[in-house]
Amino acid sequence: MVTTEDIIEEKEEKKAPVFKNPEFQHTAFRSSKKRGWKNLKQIIALERGYTWPHDAVHYSSIDAPPAFTPAKKYSDVSGLPANYTDPLTKLRYADSSEFYRVRDLPMDIVNGLLELRKANSIVG
After folding, report:
1. What are residue 75's phi and psi, to 5 degrees?
2. Contact predicate 74/81, CB 8 Å
3. Residue 31 — φ and ψ, nearest 5°?
4. Closest to 97 in 3D by CA, of 117, 115, 119, 75
5. Sign of torsion, CA 13 19 21 25?
6. Domain Vps72/YL1 C-terminal spans what residues (predicted)?
7. DSSP secondary structure string, the chain?
8. CA distance 121 to 124
9. Residue range 16-34, pLDDT digits in tens
10. What is the rounded average pLDDT of the residues 26-52?
11. Is residue 123 over pLDDT 60?
12. SS (H, E, C) 66-90
């Protein structure tokens, strides 16, 4: 017959699982100093300072081939994907409510939006 004392002894005899290291301490808790993230500009600047082997791949050496898909077009008013372009102002819009808003815009704002998009067409 199994007694409660036997069960308690079995639990005490059990060791920690083999895959758990009792001396493990997470790297975030080792030091009190917080480590900040580096942005891409900092990473590229550091990579330029190192001497790399000829065949090494890093951020500044990756050349991407040109995309086969056409660039996505977004609305100049809302930023949503735009399927339509106003023939009068050359602004892109996503739906009919934006079309009416585009038509109501003054020409200086239309020219400003086209300049933001770097569409060098003169409207007027």
Report:
1. -65, 140
2. yes
3. -120, 155
4. 75
5. negative
6. 73-102
7. ---HHHHHHHHHHPPPPTT--TT---HHHH-SSPPPPPPHHHHHHHHHHS---TT---GGG--PPPPSSPPP-B-TTT-SB--EE-TTT--EESSHHHHHHHHHS-HHHHHHHHHHTT--PPP-
8. 10
9. 566 777 777 766 555 566 6
10. 76
11. no
12. CCCCCCCCECCCCCCECCEECCCCC
Q: Mean pLDDT throughout 29-49?
A: 77
Q: Which residue has the tokens 């660039």?
A: 71
Residue range 59-105, pLDDT digits in tens: 666 676 777 888 899 999 999 999 999 999 899 999 999 999 999 99
